[in-house]
Amino acid sequence: MNARTVISIVLVFLSTLWHQATAQITVANLRTELRSNPIGIDVAAPRLSWQLQGSERSIQQEAYRVLVASSQEKLDQNIGDFWDSGKQLSNNSTHVIYAGRALQSGAAVFWKVKVYTNKGESKWSEPAGWTMGLLHYKDWTGRWIGFDRYFPSDNAETGQLAARYFRKEFTTTKQIKQATAYVMGLGLYELYIDGKKIGDQVLAPVPTDYTKNIKYNVLDVTKSLSQGKHALGVILGNGRFYAMRQAKPYKVKTFGFPKLQMQLMLTYTDGSTEVIKTDDSWKGTTEGPITANNEYDGENYDARKEPTGWANPDFDDKTWLKAAFVQEPGGNYEAQSEGMKVMQDIAPVSIVKKSEGKYILDFGQNFSGWVKMTVSGTRGTAVTLRFAESLTEDGELFTTNLRDAKATDHYILKGGGKETWEPRFTYHGFRYVEVSGYPGVASKSNFVGRFVYDDIPDAGTFMSSNPLINQIYQNAWWGIASNYKGIPVDCPQRNERQPWLGDRPVSAYGENFLFDNANFYNKWLEDIRLSQKEDGALPDVAPAFWRYYSDNVSWPGTYLFIADMLYQQTGDLRVLEKHYPAMKKWMDYMQARYTGPGGIITKDSYGDWCFPPVTIEAGKGKIADKKYPSTLIATSYYYHLLQTIARFSVLIGNERDQTDFVNRAAKMKANFNTAFYHDAGYYGSNSLTDNLLALSFGLVEDTNKEKLSNRIVEIIEKENQGHLSTGLIGTQWIMRTLTDIGRVDLAYKIATNKTYPSWGYMVENGATTIWELWNGNTAHPKMNSQNHVMMLGDLLVWLYEDLAGIKSKEHAFQTVVMKPQVVAGLNDVDASYKSVYGTIQSNWSKRKSTFKWKISIPANTKAEIFLPTTDSSTILESNQKLNNNEDIQILKQEKTGTWLAIGSGDYQFSIKL
After folding, report:
1. How high does pLDDT run on average in the chain?
2. Considering the chain, what percentage of its residues have pLDDT values greater than 90?
3. How far apart are CA 316 and CA 886, in angstroms?
4. In this predicted structure, what is the pLDDT of residue 370?
5. Could you give the percent of the chain with pLDDT greater than 70?
6. 507-514 and 467-482 helices cross at what angle (nearest 10)?
7. Rounded distance between C-alpha atoms, residue 230 and residue 181, angstroms
């Protein structure tokens, strides 16, 4: 080997070392089942995900190695005794399926990962972990306990039971290494150890159809226990288990009286174990301070009845009853992911004294949760808190739109000093609170609003130069969060609060840009699947707390929409694999029963639900729940879902089904045009919704697209004076369809209208969330919730994908397509989205003849971006002219601009318009 060769080898070696040192590739945000260090996973082969970070551009993972160990010590020694994946040549960093040893119930698992990239090799990540739940029915050694009967303190007529209190004392004689509690308290529970509440979860567990599945919580209570004497205490509330209304059993499903099964698993330092479980040694009572509770009507609390020390050792429970063994609910037991928490405290903005002891609180924001109150007074003083979304003209609570929900909390003072109280087993949708019976002088500092929703972090941000759009976005955020209650409810205030499928098909898609809601909607998909009838029918409400199986397409079809959203946004193929059989069964069920003459789908229930009255005057005092069934909506939606499930069948490797679905779709398209197309260039009744669906779903023949597009524009511009006229169905497709036909200006006008009907009209009339109805301020109180999401339609999707230009092209944002719509009147958009690969940012501004765009693309992804100039030589990146390299490449030019391919990293583009 000559000297030149040696020098070359040394230089290459040194260059490699330098490159690896400067790349500084790190692996972060390790997640199991899309959760950080979760406690209680009952998936036998969990999916592992991570994100790459580094200072260089165009970082691409080429391989990875995962170590999964039984202890932190072994992981530190790089021993993967559960699983060592070895070096896997793959760019996949999401949903990597655990393929190691079978994991046992309760096992503690530790893992880390390192990656190999085109920019060098990372160090091992910081460790992460998870624990397994109870995987098998036999792992539950306790029995269900409760009282399956009424007590004198219960009010069966109003659906309000007194809370059930249960307790158990035990003694540990050894030093505790690990203690884990597994709790199923139905309908709702709070767990105490030695008088202290365990965990920050509220309204737990999340609601399900308890005859099908029951969610349990797994709580690490090691720090709450030591060697010696202890006491367990559990309070049970009604929740959805004992239904809030039971007068119509044919409509409303109820499950029985509250009940409990739990076990405390103790592992001692000497390796031995012990289980403290629910059995007939527990004692219980209904004579506690929570004298009544339910979700609609509120909670009554008599502090005089507090059994001091009831959850502590050595409490005298001689008057308590022996807990009875009760029948188990019957559902499968499944570990819960995110549950509800108090996510934010909100101070009132004003307090107005109406009379002696009576005040009106204004929190300045419509939200869901309850009020925490501080009060001092004489024993037996009763304070009442009533909740409402708005006020009457004379400043009193407007409660008519609550229907028969009382939405009222009662608190009776025990006396003797300052008392602080908040309810446990109810929530309200409100902005205003009437406080009556308050002793002394009340001030704002005596009250705090507690905003309650599922423990889901924000996923996105959005800000623009248009204050109205920003306010609508904020209203949407508050409305969505307010209606996350373990299920996506329609509203948080009246006697409904049901998970209607029809409210969420496209809304959930938009919600995913605001909230990291994948696990939330995965849970809801399971609720829908388990609600399916043997013949294939799906309900309108899931879980089917209301027994509505009306056999339409647009409501149950949400099952496929949500599955599609989860796959598109997170890349989770297992979602499709799990739910495909049930989705196919429903598709076959609907076609077999409701294919009419001419091959169209004849069954629909709701039509374009809640489309706006022509004028606000026409809608005054009108009840908006009239149904206008539409065979066009049923057929077009079914066609769209045939295309969707055909795509699913390809993804899961079922080509035979794909051929069948494609052929069925082709026939239905022909039948649809025969039945609904008019030679004048429109569809159906010539409504905006009918025409939008035909165009958006690809049902229009190519020769008719321009004519139909013009007709849609004509309806909006001339007949509607620049406004929409769509209900729940049409609003899901209006913004993107207008943008796709080149009329983003018209979509922007609709988004920024302040006159009826529009989202801006809601803002102009004081809304801080989204109304149920376009004319929600004048419609009949029977149906005018002021905190709904169903009329959001595709607005949020449009804000992110079209205005900001953040859209997945393939593999759940592993390739991002970015084409922001630069529309007249909008000068700035600044948005971000936390994808499964990391945060994508798009910040563009337009000033006279200059367009500037800051972009951030996470490592292990790439993007195709569109710049509005046909002269690529004028494009500057970081004030430099473009040069094709691995970071930036010119892909193609169109009539309106230039497409570039870019790698991961931060970019600053500018052009002259």
Report:
1. 95
2. 93
3. 75
4. 99
5. 97
6. 100
7. 14
